[in-house]
Amino acid sequence: MKSWVVYLVAVVGFAIYGASTSADRDSSGAIVEEGSIGAFNVRVGDCFNDVTFDEEVSSVPGVPCSVPHDNEAYAVFDVSVTSYPEGEGMSELAFESCMERFATYVGNDYESSSLDITTMFPSRQSWRENDREVICAVYDMNEQKLTGTTKGSAL
Predict the structure, then answer these.
(1) Is pLDDT at 20 greater than 80 in this prediction?
(2) Is residue 153 part of a domain?
(3) CA neighbor of 152 nearest in space, from 121, 125, 115, 98
(4) What's the pLDDT score for residue 54?
(5) Cβ atoms of residues 114 and 155 within 8 Å
(6) pLDDT-derived band at 16, boundaries 50, 70, 90
(7) Using CA atoms, how far apart are residues 121 and 118, in angstroms rounded to an integer?
(8) Residue 85 domain-assigned?
(9) Distance, CA of 54 to CA of 119 (rounded, Å)
(10) Is 115 strand, coil or helix?
(11) Is 146 a domain residue?
């Protein structure tokens, strides 16, 4: 009986911790309080700070766009290829697909912009688990924090 109580307390504790560390959104879906955003819950317009990309990314530190931040998601989509590309193929596919979507969101072509692109895309392992999602985000080329949205900014 005692072990069930410990287990139940641990589960409830993790649930409370997870809820308390998740980013809060308003009724429009905008982040209003910083916290973790699951990788599959990133939305276009979400602002977030850098994470270490040593391994697969499971979440990013979401923040309101009104506070200084490193990145802003500008496109989220599933790739339409039927098999995982060889070598650097997935990275290249993600980048090229993000390039195609850049000007529509930012309001300036990539070559003239002071923003650069970062991508998050399926790993070979996550592909086997049906992950097809690519996230495109912009950041300042001079590694300065962004404040406010880059949507339509022509930066």
Answers:
(1) no
(2) no
(3) 115
(4) 59
(5) yes
(6) very low
(7) 10
(8) yes
(9) 14
(10) strand
(11) no
User: Which amino acid does the sequence have at 86?
Assistant: E
Domain count, the chain: 1
User: What digits encode the pLDDT tens for the residues 103-118?
Assistant: 999 999 999 999 999 9
Torsion from C-alpha of 28, 33, 35, 39, nearest 10 degrees: 20
Length of the chain: 155
CA-derived radius of gyration, the chain: 18
Distance, in Å, from the CA atom of 63 to the CA atom of 60, rounded to the nearest integer, reads: 9
Print the domain residue range for 89: 2-140
Confidence band for 51, pLDDT divided at 50, 70 and 90: confident
pLDDT of residue 130: 92
The label of the residue with tokens 């270490």 reads 52
| Continuous H helices in 22-123 | 89-106
Nearest one of 71, 65, 72 to 32, comparing CA atoms: 65
Domain-located, residue 93: yes
CA distances from 143 to 50, 71, 114, 116, 135 (A): 11, 10, 10, 10, 19
Taking residue 37's Cβ as centre, other Cβ atoms within 10 Å add up to 22
